[in-house]
Known about the structure:
The complex is a heterodimer.
Chain A: H1 2-7, H2 13-49, H3 54-59, H4 70-77, H5 82-113, H6 119-128, H7 134-147, H8 154-179, H9 182-190, H10 195-206, H11 208-223, H12 227-232, H13 244-258, H14 261-281, H15 283-294
Helix pairs in contact in A: 2-14, 4-14, 5-8, 5-11, 5-13, 6-8, 8-11, 9-10, 11-15, 13-14
Chain B: H1 2-33, H2 51-58, H3 60-93, E1 97-98, E2 101-102, H4 108-115, H5 117-120, H6 123-133, H7 140-147, H8 164-189, H9 193-201, H10 206-217, H11 219-235, H12 237-243, H13 255-264, H14 269-293
Helix pairs in contact in B: 3-8, 3-10, 3-11, 6-12, 8-11, 11-14, 13-14
Amino acid sequence: MALLTETRPESPPETSAPKTERAxxxxxxxxxxxxxxxxxxxxxxxxxxxxxxxNEILTDPWSLxxxxxxxxxxxxxxxxxxxxxxxxxxxxxxxxxxxxxxxGAMAAYVLARYRFRGSRIIYFAFTGGMMFPVFLALVPLFxxxxxxxxxxTLPGLALVYAAYSLPFTVFFLTAFFRTLPTSVAEAAMVxxxxxxxxxxxxxxxxxxxxxxxxxxxNFLFQWNQYVLPIVLMQxxxxxxxxxxxxxxxxxxxxxxxxxxxxxxFAGMTIAMLPVLAAYLLFHRQFQSxxxxxxxx
Amino acid sequence: xxxxxxxxxVFLIPPLLLYGIFVVSPYAQAFQISGTNWSGxxxxxxxxxxxNFRRLLDDGYFxxxxxxxGLLLVLLxxxxxxxxxxxxxxxxxxxxxxxxxxxxxxxxxxxxxVYFFPQVLSVAIIGVLWKEMYAPHTGMINGFLRGIGLDxxxxxxxxxxxxxxWCVLAVLVWMNVGFYVVLFGAAxxxxxxxxxxxxxxxxxxxxxxxxxxxxxxLWDTIQVAWVYLAIVAIDGFAVxxxxxxxxxxxxxxxxxxxxxxxxxADGQFGYASAIGVAMFFLTLTVAVMFLRVxxxxxxxx
Lengths: 296, 301
């Protein structure tokens, strides 16, 4: 209410200000704490539920676990294959990230630092990819990947992730390479440094801050992918190659008839905690990386 | 000279190949496939011209899904941006004001870190989590409602066609607000403090200051936010597919899910591609309309 009374024109600011001013921080905190609870309570609830028995979950969703049932976690990791999906995700994202960063940096460097015919067209071809919804490509992409024999394989998925990360990576790193000073590169060239050495020994280390930002953005983009894996990891035997996002949603569907609620919550917690922990350690880099991605 | 050419070729050809095979060629083929009746099973198909698009015009399911995307397109950015601005301004100017000027609240760093949580979680985790939150018997929401004696309100949220769409919208807002709090908060840092002090000295309250000073100065950032939330709204696939699968009936269906089911459940690849092309033009239309509407004089500092 303090916010509302403040705006009334008839109350002279000189006298009313001190009173309402004192209430402002209190009101701010009320709202801010409210949203903080809304954000964290569901996550805390999932973690707590992962330690409960199915019976406890069924009787009262708000009850606390009577003891820490780590067996839920081991069941989710083993029997529900969350562990395998986790490793698959890690393999795909690691591979994809290496390809993305290497190819992205190579293309961006050439486009930013060399003048040659067609460079602008290539630049726009890369960055134009940001304009198209991925759904438009979904059907043909499925057949392209199938015809290459890469359907339901981890390398296939990694290549697709990398390809769809290139537009933004090239866009961001081209801008970044342009801001780097030319004097160092010129000095190195005078000293007889070749193009390849110049790139790997001089320019890449100089571009490190930009590489870190775009790397974090790409990591989250690829780790959190949903539609690409569910389209591309189909076919016989593909369940063994599923990534975390897919495995978890399949678990949520199966949980319905198996009734293993605690296992589902444990799987969810296992999927959630590593990324949250990494975020808490590097939250500045995460935020700036994502902000950079959004403000393209 | 040859060294330079070789270098350019070696550095450009691998990325271009990767990009051409997996991105450019599927986009190009999508337009071609959308003109066929291809079912994917046999290599045989015929060109049917614009038949798929004519069929789209009479497809009630498509229009229902499109209507939901349209609603999301309006409601998601409005709700998210308003909440984002509200919390961001509370964090950066919601503290006390004294001779030294307006302060942010204590613990602003804590709020910025916590609000960002949903942004780093994968959309699959968020979808599964909220599906469980909404669950009629075991869910946290109904547990809360029963706990405070509102048993009558503890309904099957996702099983009721009246609520399912709004449940999806709530999740989309929940997962996006934090990011825009951080984004707007960062933009507000660059607004000179004395502008707020001058406004407060002139007797403007904090709400007036937010609407009259902050919003115009953040207009560029708000526009960017709008574009990205519009992209989320045109998509919406993952959250819908996980939480409601478009149902009950098609009460929470979206175009992306229509496309996915038409292609990979029904095997109508030609028709699915036509939906994809429609989605592309929808995106394009929104982008053009947006550029027209928001062309507004910039406030220069």
